Amino acid sequence: MNRDQALVQACLQQDRTAQRTLYEQYGGKLFAITLRYMKNREEAEDVLQEVWIRIFSHLDSFRFDCPLEAWLKRIAINTAIRALQKQPQWKNFLDTDGLEISTHHEMSALDLLSVEELRSLIQQLPDGCQTIFNLYAVEGYKHHEIATLLGITEGTSKSQYSRAKALLQKEIKSISN
Amino acid sequence: MAAEEELWRKRLLDEEVTPPASVWQGIEAELDRSKRRKGFFWLFRIGGGIAAVLTLVGLGVWLPEVIRSSADSPKVDAVVSSSEAKDYPSTDRAPRSTSPLSAERVASRHGVGRQYPSRSVEKSTVVEVIAASQPTSILSSGHLANPDVIASLENLEFRWYKNRFQWNRPRLAVPSFAAENTEVKSNTTEKYLAFQTSGAPFQPGVQWPSLAQDAFAAVRETLQDDMPFFSTSGNRSPLPVERVDEMGIASVYDPNSLRPEQSFESGWVMQWSTNFGWFLTERWGVEVGLRYIQGANSTQSNVFSWNTQTAETQTFFEATVLQNKVQNASIIASRESLQSRYHLVSLPVQAVYRIPLNSSWEIAASGGFALDKMVVNQWTWANQSTEQIYRPEESSYRPASVSALGGVRAGRSLGTHWQANAGIFTQYAMSSWLSSEQVSMRPHQWGGQLGITYRWP
Hints:
The complex is a heterodimer.
Chain A: H1 3-12, H2 16-37, H3 41-58, H4 68-85, H5 115-123, H6 127-138, H7 143-150, H8 154-176
Chain B: H1 3-12, H2 21-71, E1 78-81, E2 92-93, H3 103-109, E3 129-131, E4 136-138, E5 143-144, H4 147-154, E6 158-161, E7 164-167, E8 183-185, E9 191-203, E10 206-207, H5 211-223, E11 242-244, E12 250-252, E13 262-264, E14 267-279, E15 284-306, E16 313-315, H6 316-322, E17 329-356, E18 361-381, E19 387-390, E20 400-413, E21 418-429, E22 440-441, E23 444-456
Antiparallel strand pairs in B: 1-8, 2-5, 3-4, 6-7, 7-8, 9-14, 9-23, 10-22, 11-12, 13-15, 14-15, 15-16, 15-17, 17-18, 18-19, 18-20, 20-21, 21-23
């Protein structure tokens, strides 16, 4: 039994110390995820709390068929998306199917920006763009997977991603200049 | 993957940001709440389990009966009433082993050749015993009927109603042998499974004669050091009618409004129950069950206790009676309203007496005792979502108490097995819910109930 397995077993016994250890071990990575998906820190903290409640209440369904960290991150992403989908402005971006924006980008300036600045740039994207950009560019989802996950067409996913990249490029350029 | 996506991934995928401490505190609080909820619901799970077992047992008894009755023709065991009487002579002696009602008993109960035109069981006379499965007919004389009559009897059709077979006159094949609408009783015991819901006004029945004395004593103890203007003796409000503070501002207190108050208003209680019953005789039965009871009422209080360390505020009743926190500081302040909600499970055992009125209607009276188990008591301040929870193991609520209960209900048959019923009931706590010496709590209620009953022989 490796460390993660032992930790999960202890958490299943409602061992508060083990729960705290698990939280401290992965809380930072999950908070970074919720920060990237939500618009501000307060929302991200609320979602993070919900993420951990879901984790502790569904931990018995984790079968160790994938790394624990990947499972935790998936819950964080799904919880964040669920929270976004509850927001009234979520549906607005679904109408932009077919929106084409130039995809020629100069991203070398990325290296000049701090992680906090990059996260802030992503947070400033419109809702749908932000989620799709996170899923595609950072998490590595394919467009058809995103379409299934969000209940949108693959075309919408692609066009929103292009739009996100264009907006980011514009912002990065303005910062660089 | 394009280079720019790779760049984003590299910078952000494994990023870590330390969350603020408040997040873990929120998670921990939610985990604690969830744990409490789980603790609270185990009783309901047990209750549900018992109800399920009762249902399964009921089905287990009922299904074989249904299968048997559909496979065989009705077995008639004993005639219990008759609308008219007529003797039928026979010379054959009744074999005692072939009848559920022995010839000896029949013969001793009725005189040979006498006629009893009554409808009651004891006075029925013409056909005392009919056993279609073992064709035997014992007459009032204690003799068997002629074999040809028995053969005719076997061709008769009986209609199954509740726990009886009814013999329809138009189908009567044996002229003058048995009376019209002769009722034939099965020798099996009638059982039933009843599901009931009831609602009733609810009186918490709290008696606290020493409230004023207790509250004033606690308030004085709190305030005597730094507020010497308070009265320190007597069973009166410690607050003066008038006082002048350091700024020279005079305040007038209404002594009447400063009387300690802790009133428990009447509320409403709902009950949901599953009862299993069986009749030991034609009229008398026993009923056991499982009830979930939820009661709610409002309370008003102007005496409060607070923990000076945590600033946790409760009513004086909660702090001193329910939790025995005598070390808390006490004050008399403006009157506040709170909601109190009670959740209990109850195991009632009742005797039932029923009176059939006609083929469709019957009334039944019941009475007995119940063992009531307090599960949780919630207190909520008006207009606030926070609630204080008291369980017997952490408060002065007794783990269980006994109550007397009874009721009258009318039942209407909805077919062969189902019966709808409606009635009134009452329940009165025989012992206090509290272990406190100075405060007693004996709730009582009376109200209406509705239910549906499944019966089988």
